[in-house]
Amino acid sequence: MNRIFKQPVRLVFLAVYYLLLRHLPAGNHRGTRWLSIIRGLVCRGIFLEAGPGLIVEKGAYIGTGRAVTVGSNSSIGENAKIYGPVKIGDDVMMGPDIIIYTSQHRYDCTTAPMRTQGCTEARVVDIRDDVWIGARAIIMPGVTVGKGAIVGAAAVVTGDVPEMAIVGGVPAKVIKQRGENTSN
After folding, report:
1. Residue 33's beta-bridge partner residues?
2. Predicted confidence (pLDDT) at residue 88 exceeds the cutoff of 90
3. Lower Cβ count inside 10 Å, N or C end of the chain?
4. How many helices (H) and strands (E) in the chain?
């Protein structure tokens, strides 16, 4: 697409998404699945990069999408909040109400109120291929979630998650590895 037209088209997609599509019913029923697909198609025009098969559920907040890349056949859950820069791989599943932060409030100076200190510089969150992020999980700035990992519901991920690990808790810890025999 011609560079002159790319930004205005992106702004139109953002307006359509936030004014209309974000508020339409969730696509978790057979008759409304097409709404999630339409949201995904529009978000492909918003994100820096997005592969085919993107599913975006109702109420997802994606900021400007300018610093978000998403691979093929991935989904963004209902009411998710994604603050870029974020890299999401192929075949990623996200439950509802997840939050991905890439910066946080500064608190270095003890003589000034924290609310006046601004935010830290944004650090990329990298979610690799074939990851499942459970409902209401929170992923903090700079975290890498390894390929094939599972983040349990309501986990707060403050550090990198190894490949094929299952993590849960606050803060999230490795519970076990996928494929590990659980009978003793």
Report:
1. none
2. yes
3. C
4. 2, 16
What does the pLDDT average to over 89-108? 96
Does pLDDT of 182 surpass 50?
yes
Alpha helices, DSSP H only, in the chain? 3-19, 33-44
Mean of pLDDT over the chain: 92
CB atoms within 10 A of CB 182: 5
The DSSP symbol for 130 reads S
CA distance 93 to 99: 14
Q: Whole-angstrom Cα distance, residue 56 to residue 74?
A: 9
Q: Which residues are catalytic?
A: 105
Q: Which domains does the chain have, with CATH numbers?
A: 3-142 (2.160.10.10)
SS3 8: helix
Q: Which residues contact 23 (CB under 8 A, 6 or more apart)?
A: 58, 59
* pLDDT cut 70: percent of the chain above it: 94
Q: Which two tokens stand for residue 144?
A: 């890498």
